Every structure is written in structure tokens, then in C-alpha cells.
Amino acid sequence: MDRKRNLVFFKNYFSEFFETQTEPVKEKIDYVFFLVTNAERIPKKFFSQIEGLTGLFEIKIEYESNIYRIFCCFDEGNLVILFNGFQKKTHKTPSREIEKAKGIMNEYFNLKRKNNERNTK
């Protein structure tokens, strides 16, 4: 099966979240990542855009009665850049988590822009 998308772990934001999870939760995250990278169309159950924010998405994971979210964005067409993750405890995604993800997304694109400028000199 040809991959439709590739995952990129930006800095250690996602890794720090992932390492604190139990093995069954890690396995479920890996399964959803498989869908994200290989499915022609990612089911909305597992992936959606954050309302009102251009370019910011969340990967949705449910395991038993727990809900987890991993923020991400697309870059260069088929790259999915992973940011922070958290365990969701309320129906609505906490604004502080969205703000954190927006900051990381800005950090990613600013760093990329600086590296591109450096490489074109």
C-alpha cells in the first residue's frame, strides 16, 4: 500500500505526550496514525479541522472512555506535522490547548521560513 501522507514529529512536543501514555493507548494512536498516513480520505471520526482556525487540525483518538487529541497541520501537500497532544476531559477542546497548538504551528512555519531564507543565500 502506498502511503498517502507522511508524519513529521516537530521537535519533542508530541513525543513528550506519547511517552506518558499506556501501551494500549499508544497502540490506538499508532492505529489512527496508520489511517492518517494510508487512507485516501481520513474518516472524520479520526480527523477534523479546528473551527475558525485555518490550517490547524486535530487527530482524534478514543480508547475506552478516554478521549485524546493531537494537533497537527499539513505542509507541502502530503506532510502531516504533529504538534502537542492531550487527554480531553471536557466536551469542548480547552482554549489553552488550542492556543498552545497555534503557537507551535507558528513556531514550525517561522523556523521553516528562516531555514529557507538561509538556504537561498
List keywords for this structure.
121 residues; 28% strand; 3 helices; five-stranded mixed β-sheet
Give a description of the structure.
It is a single chain. The chain has helices at 13-19, 23-38, 95-119; strands at residues 6-9, 47-49, 57-63, 66-75, 79-88. A hairpin with a 2-residue loop joins β3 (57-63) and β4. The protein is globular. The protein is built from three helices and five strands, in the order βααββββα. Strands 1-5-4-3-2 form a five-stranded mixed sheet. With 121 residues, it is of the alpha+beta class.
Main β-sheet, spatial strand arrangement: 1-5-4-3-2
Distance between the termini: 39 Å
Question: What amount of the residues lies in strands?
Answer: 25-35%
Shape: globular
Q: Low-confidence runs (pLDDT<50, min 5 residues)?
A: none
What is the topological layout?
Layout: E1 6-9, H1 13-19, H2 23-38, E2 47-49, E3 57-63, E4 66-75, E5 79-88, H3 95-119
Parallel strand pairs: 1-5
Antiparallel strand pairs: 2-3, 3-4, 4-5
Describe the structure concisely for a colleague:
The chain has 3 helices and 5 strands. The radius of gyration is 15 Å and the shape is globular. The chain is 40% helix and 28% strand.
